[in-house]
Each structure stands twice: as structure tokens, then as C-alpha cells.
Amino acid sequence: MGTVLQVTDFEADVAEYRSMEAKITQDFLNGVMRLGEILKRQRDKYKPKKQWLEYLEKVGRTVTTANQFIRIYEYSETNLKTLMSANLTGWEKLNTFLALPEELREKLALEIQGHEVTAEEFRDKVIDIKDDENTDETIDDKDLLPIDDSLAEMIGQSTLADIHFMAKKLIEEFNKIGKEFSPGCVVIAEGFLGMEKAIRDLDKTNFKKLSAPEKKYWKKVIKDQLDRLLNSVK
Are 13 and 53 in contact (CB under 8 A)? Predict the structure, then answer.
């Protein structure tokens, strides 16, 4: 009689995720919501056991990506009709949709009404409803780039000694959740991380150590540099 292989509870949970992920291309949004439900349930199960990161490694997902799936699932629990009406067939559409305030999400869903639209048509509709409502200022900028708590933690824990390496890793994380950033974004990410390092170096503790004339000089220089920075991204 052959040996019977025992499948552990952990291995079964990993297999469940992998099975669902294989089907995601058949129905993007339904697949994402289902994966989010699985991840939320299993995060609640394994995080208290300190196995959440091990689980994510086994299924080939980062904390950032898992949180994105979970966020979409949680939104669908109370806003499923709006999600389905917006016909979100890819990550670009989905991230753009989630960056809108709730009232504009509903308006966009009514505009699309479940019909298939190209990515360009989708962007045009978003621009139109924002112009109609004149609510550009209400867009939550933190949602436009998916720097969630886990990515912020990754940056926060880094010494930023090798900014080029860290910038490449940051772009890799963005692309794992569907942003499709080109290699040209690495140098921009380097600039972003350079500013993060500068903020650390320019904290109040360090600044207070300067003499009054030194503070006056560096304050002016930094303000001038910020003006140049803002002009460069217009």
C-alpha cells in the first residue's frame, strides 16, 4: 500500500489562491474581488500566527499587492453595482476609478453603464466628469500612486544609501499592481527618494542646530530649489 501524502491546511490555502489566480484573466474584476476575499480571510487567519508574509511569499504576492486586492474586495461589499457598471477591465481603469471621490465614481458608472470602453475613452470620461463637477481638488492624490502603508514602510526602513537600487525596487512594486511604468520612471523615482532623504536630513532637530544666519541662508536656498522643482513638473 502506497504512502498517503497529507496536505496541510496551509498548503491547501496556498493551492486555493493559486487556483483562483489562474482564472483571473477570464473575468478581471470578478477575479480580483474573489482574490481579495481569499486574501482578506487568510490575512485574518495567518497574521496573528505571524505567517502572513510566509503565505504571501508562497503565493507570489507582495504585501502591497495583497492590500490592493483586499481594498477592492472591501469596496465591492457595499458598492458592487457601481463597480460592475463601471466595467473595470484592467488595473489602469481600476486604479483611476478608486482615485475618484465616491460621487464621481457613481457618475462615471452611470456614464459607462456596463459598456466596453477603451482605456483612452475611459480616461476621457473621467476628465469630462471632473470638468463638469469642477472637483479636481477633491481627487485623493495618495490613490493616484499606489504608495500604501507597506510601500511607505519599505521606504521608511531603508537607509536610502543606494537610491538608484531603491528606485528600481519601487518601480517594480508599482508594476506588480498594474501601473505599467516604463524604465524612464526610475530616474523620477530616484528624485522622489532623494527628496525623502532630504526631508530626513532637514528635520527640525538638525535645523535647530544651525545659527540664525545659517538658518536664514539655507531656508532661502531650499525655497528657491522647491520653486525650481515645481516648475520642472508643470
Answer: no
80-93 confidence digits (pLDDT tens): 888 888 888 788 78
pTM of the shown model: 0.49
Is there a single domain that holds both residue 116 and residue 167? no
Q: Is the domain of 124 the same as that of 171?
A: no
pLDDT < 50 regions, the chain = 25-26, 135-146
Task: State the cell numbers at 5.
Answer: 501524502
CB 29 within 8 A of CB 75: no
CB 70 within 8 Å of CB 43: yes
Range of 41's domain? Answer: 9-142
Grid-cell match 539655507, residue found: 218
